[in-house]
Every structure is written in C-alpha cells, then in structure tokens.
Amino acid sequence: MVSRAESAAATRRALLDDAAELLDSGGPGAVTLREVGARAGVSRGAPYRHFVDKESLLTAVAAEAWEHLGDRMQALRGDNATVPAEALRGDNATVPAVALRAALAEVIAISRRQPYLYDLMFRTPTADPAAVVRAAQRMCDEFAAIVTTVVGEQDAERCASVLLTGAHGAAGLESSGLLTTDKWQTNADDLIDTLIAAVTQR
Predict the structure, then answer these.
(1) pLDDT digit string (tens) for 141-157?
(2) How far apart are CA 124 and CA 122, in angstroms?
(3) CB 167, CB 107: distance < 8 Å
(4) Distance between CA atoms of 67 and 31, rounded to whole angstroms?
(5) What parts of the chain have a pLDDT lower than 50?
(6) DSSP per-residue letters across the chain
(7) Could you give the CA distance from residue 118 to residue 23 in angstroms, rounded to a whole number?
C-alpha cells in the first residue's frame, strides 16, 4: 500500500514534470496551477497543497534544473580520469580541459534545448529564492572544482566566474541571433573554445 507521504511525493513529482513540459512548450505564460493539475490528473486544489502559487511552482522548477546541472558537473568531475582528450577541439587538449569544455557545453545546451527554462534559471525568483540559491551555489562549487583541475586552486574561483559569465553571455548572444550576423559569424561553441584557451594558456 502506498503511504500518504509517498502519494504526496508522487503528486509533487508529477506537478513538477508537467510544469516543466508546459514551460518548454510555451514559456512561463503557459504554466498555470490549474493546467498543471489537470495534466497531472489531480484535483483542482491538489497543486495548492504543494505550491502556494504559480511563482512558487516555477521557482521549484528552476531549483530542480540547477540541481540537475550540478549533478552533471559532479559526474564530469568523476569523468576526469577516463574522458578522451581528443574530445576537446584544439591541439593542446588535456583531460581536465575536456571536462571543463563539457561543463560549459552543458550550460550552452540548456540555452539551446530549453530556452524558457534557461531564462527561468537565471531570473531572480519572485518566490522564496533559498532553494534556487542553494542549488545554483552547489552547481558553481562543482564547476569550480572542475576549473581547479585546470588552473589550480589559487585562480580557480576567479577563472570559474569568468568562464561561467562568458558562457552565459555567449548563450545570450547566440539566442539573439547576433553571433550569426555578417559582423561576427561565430557561435557559442567557438567562443567557449576561445575562453578555455585564454584560461589554459595563461
């Protein structure tokens, strides 16, 4: 028999999954507690037992996205010993640099596959931001650990902030279409490679 706690957890999981799907398909405007509840097959009042309002639901979706990105960063740290160096474009690839490029590529991939979610992740939450801040900080810590293997502990935090800022900027410029104009003719992947080269060839 399913316990009340297990049932509540399953309902919350379904609400988060359906909210994420609605966000991907139509942006924040497509997400309503009524529609999310209908998709999850629960009563109209059930979503409100888990989330005070739409903003608190969207904040939970953003926090979970940061958690997933943090999990991926952690996995890449574990891949340092086995990932093939040739996976990094360029002649001076090292195993840690491969993991670093893969980490930045994860950020770019979200901006491409799930642009509404990406925007939500980097938006200041209007609901309680504690969960988002905690999850984002954990991701940053995992990313900084990857950077440490490339540049050393002394410069890791500064380089990590530069790299994440650069990747975020590249993602934004790419999504706007500015990188493909006649003036630039580049993409976020090329900019990531330039950033990594600047860090690793100091």
Answers:
(1) 999 999 999 999 999 99
(2) 7
(3) yes
(4) 21
(5) 81-89, 91-92
(6) ---HHHHHHHHHHHHHHHHHHHHHHH-GGG--HHHHHHHHT--TTGGGGT-SSHHHHHHHHHHHHHHHHHHHHHHHHHGGGTS-GGGSSSSS--HHHHHHHHHHHHHHHHHHH-HHHHHHHTSPPSS--HHHHHHHHHHHHHHHHHHHHHH-HHHHHHHHHHHHHHHHHHHHHHHHTGGGSTTT---HHHHHHHHHHHHHT-
(7) 10
118 vs 57: CA distance, rounded Å: 16
| pLDDT given for residue 201 in this prediction | 77
- How far is residue 141's CA from residue 135's CA, in Å, rounded to a whole number? 10
Backbone dihedral angles phi then psi of residue 98, each to the nearest 5 degrees: -60, -45
pLDDT digits (tens, 9 = 90+) for 96-121: 889 999 999 999 999 999 999 999 99
CA distance 15 to 134: 21
Q: Both tokens of residue 111?
A: 């901006």
CA diameter of the chain: 64
Amino acid 91: pLDDT:
47
pLDDT at 79 (0 to 100) = 58
- Confidence (pLDDT) at 130: 94
Angle at CA of residue 72, ends 70 and 74, nearest 5°:
70
Q: What is the token pair recorded at 75?
A: 């996995």
Half-sphere exposure of 70 (CA within 13 A, CB side): 18
